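User: Hello, can you help with two protein structures?

Assistant: Certainly.
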Amino acid sequence: MPIRAILTDIEGTTSAVSFVFDVLFPYAFEHLPQFVLEHAQEPAVAAQLDAVRVESGEADADLIRVIEILLQWIIEDRKATPLKALQGMVWQQGYESGQLKGHLYPDAVEALQRWHRDGYALYVYSSGSVQAQQLLFGCSVAGDLTPLFAGYFDTSSGPKREAQSYQNIAATIGLPGDEILFLSDVVQELDAAQQAGLQTIGLAREGGRLAGHDTVASFAVIDLDRF
């Protein structure tokens, strides 16, 4: 079946992993404590702080303790939904102030724009929150690219290394798996997508091959006509 939709990872695929670890995470680590102190009473923030207490098993944690937990989770790169949500709020301030600009590889920008013009439905699936995804593409070095995308998925759809997550996403998109192409630089994610019936292409920007999957070094050489 021909490809009708493209689902792409972000880190290492459309964007440099270093942008997340060298720019976004340090920014959140520096600015999150003050953000929490200033906004803890706002309903959207308070809900995430309560979720931190639940997930950490520290139901009675005061605000300072919750901040300590969040900072430790950043150090551990914990894929915790409340952390991702709060990071997204902090990053929003950074993007809106112009302190942050989302990194995108030029070949990814060109291909995404071309695929959108050609009528493919484009989606994002990242461990970062939907808000963080929209901020990265909306305040990117290439300008606002959010009009290119039909939808965004994060860990609320399930872990990225489990086949059920991709089945959930395919059901939401409303297409059979073999009409969806998933792009990622992580072989375990590609394996899970393949198990769910999706087509896959691996991105290995430094060269090499992701076992069991067609692998390219750039979006520029991806040929959708072969599917």
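That covers the first. Now for the second protein you mentioned:
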Amino acid sequence: MRAIDAGILVCNECHELNPRDDADPKPFCSRCGASLHARRPNSIVRTWALLITAMILYIPANVLPIMTVSTLGQGSPDTIMSGVITLMQHGMIPIAAVVFTASILVPTFKLVGIALLLYSIQRHQPLSARQRIIMYRFIEFIGRWSMLDIFVIAILVAVVNFGRIANVEPNLGAVAFAAVVILTMFAALTFDPRLIWDNTESDDDND
């Protein structure tokens, strides 16, 4: 049974359980005074807006150079993929695999996964509530690892600064990639996972 079926509203701010009063059109939390809603207002619309923006920025994040490494005054800008290829050519396959996973696979999975969740809920696609919630939890878990590339670039820019001998400069691709990561994290936060269970009966997943 869902909390809403039992006449309980969960505060989105402090998670206090409040009994629902049908006579009160604008209920407030008894603990913190925040407005109570059965579901987060405009959750799907806000999540789609953040997700579409992240998808648009995902193109320049992969096309534009993410950083430029200069040695003895010479260097060329690298995109995420060209950086992975360069690492592989120098025999650093484990590092290349980590960068490829954190910078290519994880953001792509998050974009596709959140879009699939939204589409399946809106269109009542044959995807069980258990499958959806596992996907949602996995998206939340891997979200933090998407910032690995940005952390590496920030450390390199701060540490490798020896003038013409060796220097690392961030490029516009890094800004676009950071925006993609932040937007997908916000998209996962604005999505209300309780909407998954609202579709349980229509998905014939009543266990």
